[in-house]
Amino acid sequence: MSVYDFKAKTIDGEEISLENYKGKVLVIVNTASKCGFTPQYEGLEALYQKYKDQGVEVLGFPSNQFAEQEPGSNGEVKNFCQINYGVTFQLFEKTDVRDENAHPLFNYLTEKAPYKGFNMNHPIGKILLDALEKNFPSFLEGNSVKWNFTKFVVDRDGNVVERFEPTSEPSEMNEIIEKLI
């Protein structure tokens, strides 16, 4: 099994197979427009622009599961990303990424790349951990996605290689991406 065994609907409602990305290095990330990590859209777009000609794709999956930080419609999400961050990478429709209604892709990703903790050197690391412990303690259980902007790097064969928590900036993926391209 690999990420190519999954399908998802683009933000414009077209169902596609992730097999369309066979042979590419992928960064799969759950996103939100009203989050402290939302500025990572800028870093994700920069990463995409830097590596897209070398076979790298960024796939964004907006989710409203984390303190309702993605309340808009798919159209509103798309417009927000394009207007505020110039996003040109592929966005998908709003998706659950954890719990019983999670998209199977995210169940697969979190199974293959377990949670290893937040980067506590990140300015928001301790704040995020404290907020989760206080308000959403169940989010810290198991390997599920913990918050917006959890990033997964997938190699050209569809294997999950690495997981980067929200407390990792997109640029921190450069080294692993360069090894895979």
Kindly summarize this structure in a few lines:
Belongs to the glutathione peroxidase family. By secondary structure, the protein is α/β, with parallel strands linked by helices.
Your description of this structure?
The protein has five helices and seven strands, in the order E-E-E-H-E-H-E-H-H-E-E-H. The chain has 181 residues and is an alpha/beta fold. The protein has one domain (8-148, 162-180): 3-Layer(aba) Sandwich (Glutaredoxin). The protein has a five-stranded mixed β-sheet, sandwiched between helices.
Helix content: 25-40%
Biggest β-sheet: strands ordered side by side in the sheet: 5-4-3-6-7
The number of distinct helices, counting runs of at least 4 residues, comes to 5
Q: How is the main sheet built?
A: 5 strands, mixed
Element order: H for helix, E for strand: EEEHEHEHHEEH
Task: Tell me what the CATH architecture is.
Answer: 3-Layer(aba) Sandwich
Percent of residues in β-strands: 15-25%
Q: In the CATH hierarchy, what is the class?
A: Alpha Beta
User: What would you call the shape?
Assistant: globular
How many domains, as an integer? Answer: 1
Radius of gyration: 15 Å
Return residue spans where pLDDT drops below 50 for at least 5 consecutive residues.
none
CATH structural fold name: Glutaredoxin
Structural class: alpha/beta
CATH superfamily (homologous) name: Glutaredoxin
Average pLDDT for all residues: 95
